[in-house]
Amino acid sequence: MEIEPVIGLEIHTELSTQSKMFCSCSTRFGSSPNTQVCPVCLGLPGVLPVVNEEAVRIGIKTCLALNCKINKYTRFDRKNYYYPDLPKNYQISQQYIPIGVDGWVEFEVGEEVKRVRIHNIHLEEDAGKNVHEEGKNFSLVDLNRAGIPLLEIVTYPDMHSMEEVNSFMNELRNILIYIGASNCKMEEGHLRFEANVSVRRKGDEELGPKVEMKNLNSFRSVLQALEYEIERQGARLRRGEPIYQETRLWNEEKGESFTMRFKEEAQDYRYFPEPDIPPLEIGKTWIEEIKATLPELPLKKKKRFIEEYGLSKKEAGILVEEKEISCFFEEVVKICPQPRLVVNWIMGPLMRELNERGLTIGESKLTATKLARLLEMVKENLITQTNAKYCLHEIFDSGEEPERIVEKRGWKQVTDVEEIEKMVREAIQKNPRAVEDINKGKKTAFGFLIGQVMKLSQGKANPGKVREILERELGKC
Ligand code: ADP
Ligand code: MG
Ligand code: ZN
User: Which of 368, 390, 409 is the last residue of a domain?
Assistant: First the structure.
């Protein structure tokens, strides 16, 4: 029996606002526990929440980027439950009139463009964090995270394979970063997932009972948890055993999921409209204003890079993968209009330097102008590729102008024919064995001689010219 998985995701993303959703506490990550709290986010009685305008703006921007309809009136609701990291005993969320509905995300899977529909996007607040220290028989609560703005994005069950889920998550993450909604730092918990999955006989229309997997904090755990769950459900379906609608918890270390609760035990959150916050009216002009700030989104940019600069799909994909790199590429090309050269240098030496130094471009001493001027010298054959790489390395070290480095190091390439001829003759004279070997047809000896000439020139001779002149001079031997 061929089995088809059906997958829908709920994505929680921490928004990159300075302050929390309903109070002015800082959202900074990594501070000492309980130093970024106030009566509002501590849930003390009698306080009043005030909506963070920036969070709503980001919410609207995300809705626009994900092609959602924006509700003209939107409202907050209380989701009631008791938990140590939730001092108010309720979370302020949007259950009935979310900020956006009915959108979609387009992304590539191999050669195909797929679309996953968005059911809704709603604003809410994060809970605190329970800290379980190893070997202790008690837990601690850190409420610095309590009240940080969250956006929950709920998809329709439109995905049917791991590749689709993986590409979707990557595209969504990239969009959120592009529009500045979230930094999406996985290690700081900026993106958290709940994965819903059911299986059915391939070709069937009806959906099977879904299992919701909670506690997925990385792409890897989403994929592993889904794989495990599809396997488990698939086996049951094949054996004719029932599959129960339930919520399961993923255990990363064990690589297994465990039942948390069945449908019958589902919590009743007693949702009701948040009485302390009036409904929000979202005006057309505000939406238009926000729309005007939307940047070009990654998939569109990728297509444009392929058409405009003649890049391959792979190259464009790598550049667009990071907004900063893609912008840097275009800045360099504006000054040095050699897209091929620029993309090769960005994907090669530049990314190597960044990786080795653990920096982003913005953090490094390289600027678009400096790279462009270095590549102009490469293009004009004023400097060899090898020395240009050393030069790049030095720019990363010192931030000095490329021309100055080349000057200082004496890297100006020798293209003068007579000068190269002199060195070629010297190399021939000093290496009679190699010349003999070449005459016997040993090709490696030719490369050796080129190397000798380059050495004589201290790496400054133009390799093409050396080859040409060496061939000519050897012909005379
Ligand atoms: P709930 O009311 O339990 O939260 P929803 O209908 O709101 O369930 O759906 C929550 C998530 O589960 C959505 O992402 C949706 O796409 C997904 N989902 C719903 N039904 C199924 C199903 N039968 N199989 C897989 N995913 C599903
Ligand atoms: Mg749900
Ligand atoms: Zn606060």
Answer: 409
